[in-house]
């Protein structure tokens, strides 16, 4: 396996376990701690695919696959614009 | 619906959806609407389930080289843009229109789920385990079909495929179902990518689509954190169970049963909202 992809798989594994723990906190812990845990779970679920695209974009740029690094950059741009449009509207 | 019922529904739909390769939200969202939740409230919970399912599958799919990331990223540009438009528009569309649309979506999903084909690309004996993975600079690659069988593939008819991705993104943003029931058949039947790679690539891209739509839903104040956490936890467990059960139960038979359930859900939703 490509070393970078192994690291990405490990990162996603960590995100998966963390999301599960945070989800349990959000669902079963009462009060502010539970709420913060739930919000963190949602933030993690939203940010995990964005981090994955960012990682791939950097990996492709590093290995000279410029065409797809540019595609990754455009997709990240769409994601940033989506976030800005959603919260500034 | 009480929290126990919600968690149970999210777990079962995520497991069955992962098992059939359609994703859990296509069952969860119509089920929640039929249980009394409004389509506007059900959509964010559906996308939480999608995002959780995508994350649950990621480590295994990355290690198995099943995802063609270059294809996913290229097609997701238009998919995410369409999801953004759909999510923004969903805030101004009426409840019964959304529920009706959901009914039609369930019937379309039933049709695509029922007719999906098996293996299209045949193994190439000249390939070895060292060849598996996607190819740099192109939308092609090799995947492992069996222990000693490897298949070469190349994505074709990308512009037509992009139309399918845009449609899937729009539906995801509007209704909260993943759009995977359109993406996987489009990637497989239109672009001629093997079903296994198409399904894995779709699982990757629906995570991105759901992230875009969830941002909009969050800005609209439509995410109830405690319910979202409950659905996320249950979907993470259900998705993992479903993916493991794929090895035991034949996916085509499961998809057939799922299609029958979706037809019933679709007809009920349309009949109640006409």
From TrEMBL, chain A:
Keywords: Membrane, Transmembrane, Transmembrane helix. This is Unannotated protein. The chain crosses the membrane at residues 33-56, 68-88. It comes from freshwater metagenome.
UniProtKB/TrEMBL annotation, chain B:
The chain crosses the membrane at residues 6-33, 82-112, 160-182, 197-217, 224-242, 254-271. Pfam families: TauE. Keywords: Membrane, Transmembrane, Transmembrane helix. Its main location: membrane. GO terms for cellular component: membrane. It is a multi-pass membrane protein. It is found in: Membrane. This is Unannotated protein. It comes from freshwater metagenome.
